[in-house]
Write a structure and sequence with these properties.
about 375 residues; alpha+beta; DNA Polymerase III, Chain A, domain 2; 7 helices; about 45% strand
Length: about 375
């Protein structure tokens, strides 16, 4: 193999592979990226851990076809160290040589034969597909990722539920202490799909969608994501990149039963001021529980915390509330996590009893979007 490709294009593709390669596998080839010639004017860079896979294409000058599996981290660091401009990659008996075309800088890497790299999953040509704007998928992930459980032994919680019903899509996550549901309308695109996407895949999808969303700012038309579900895998195609994931085979909790159907009290609060007060008061909360108490009465919310080790703290802020006075406790971090993914000026806190789940949602949602954050209370 002998190819020449611009540094910026090669670096972009190799960088996308870094979160997918498996550095701890007993299969050494999984710590590599595959560089292969796809056509007389294009190459493909791919990586997999056998559960996730990613591949991307870019134009290149191809003098000789072939493929090579090259250590992912080493290749990434060496490409970064190259001066801007074209880079040549050639494979010979001594390994894979990476050389700048504008300077004398060069590296030799010891890799494996491209033939030893696992084949990546492919959807059937006639598999049904869904399509939506990349910024919509980016928002769904960005507003729900924080409440995915990080406990890998609980696969049904260490994942995100993605549902498409008619022209409505939603993503739901929960770790057993809080639950987040985000919905959006996709006008004119009717489909049906249900997927349970593992946490690692959600993390990599967020990187991808955020990257392409950033490119949208320079484009007149939105970037689209094509989603294909085929067999046990889901495929996400964005621009020059295809990302695939083996879906979780588990039963997601019945989230509809967790979200309260009605609430007796509604507290409307300024989001930024509430976040600031929660952060400040939580400094004095118990390190073990992180608990704060909300004491709510007409027009005022008082936030209190205390710790046997460090003392106590309190603050108060004006709110819109005319119901009966009540007190309720929460883990401050859970409230802050919800508030941090919103950008609305005001939020509504929907409450019933001191031991009932609370709902946090933006005030006056529009544009077919819907956000619901459910947080379980705690005894203070």
């Amino acid at each position: 193999m002998n190819i020449t490709v611009p540094k910026k294009d090669l670096l972009r593709l190799v960088a996308r592979c870094q979160g997918v390669v498996d550095k701890k596998s007993t299969m050494p080839v999984l710590a590599n990226v595959l560089i292969s010639v796809d056509s007389p004017k294009a190459i493909r860079i791919a990586a997999t851990d056998l559960y996730l896979s990613i591949s991307g294409h870019t134009e290149a000058e191809v003098d000789q076809g072939g493929s090579a599996a090259v250590p992912a981290r080493d290749l990434f660091e060496r490409i970064k160290a190259m001066p801007d401009g074209p880079i040549s990659i050639s494979v010979g008996a001594g390994g894979t040589e990476v050389q700048s075309k504008t300077s004398a800088r060069r590296y030799r890497l010891h890799g494996l034969s491209g033939d030893s790299f696992p084949s990546l999953p492919e959807p059937a040509p006639d598999a049904p597909t869904l399509e939506l704007e990349v910024d919509v998928l980016s928002r769904l992930i960005g507003q729900t990722q924080f409440s995915i459980s990080t406990d890998e032994t609980r696969a049904h919680l260490n994942s995100a539920l993605f549902e498409w019903e008619g022209d409505r899509i939603r993503m739901v996550t929960t770790d057993g202490h809080r639950l987040t549901k985000v919905e959006a309308t996709v006008p004119g695109r009717h489909a049906t799909a249900t997927m349970l996407i593992p946490y690692k895949a959600i993390t990599e999808l967020r990187k991808l969608t955020d990257e392409f969303k950033g490119l949208d700012a320079k484009s007149e038309s939105p970037t689209m994501v094509t989603i294909t579900q085929f067999g046990p895998n889901a495929f996400f195609s964005i621009g020059d990149t295809r990302f695939s994931v083996k879906l979780v085979d588990a039963q997601f909790p019945a989230y509809q039963q967790v979200i309260p159907k009605s609430s007796e009290r509604v507290v409307r609060a300024p989001r930024a001021i509430l976040m600031d007060a929660l952060r400040a008061v939580s400094l004095a909360a118990s390190d073990r529980t992180g608990g704060v108490q909300l004491s709510i009465e007409s027009g005022t919310m008082r936030i209190l915390s205390e710790s046997p080790e460090s003392g106590d703290g309190s603050d108060e802020l004006p709110v819109e509330y005319t119901g009966t006075a009540m007190k309720i406790g929460f883990n401050a971090k859970y409230l802050l996590d919800v508030l941090a993914v919103l950008d609305d000026e005001e939020v509504d806190l929907l409450l019933s009893g001191e031991l009932d789940p609370a709902i946090i949602k933006p005030t006056g949602e529009s544009d077919g979007r819907s956000f619901v954050g459910v947080v379980m209370p705690m005894r203070i």
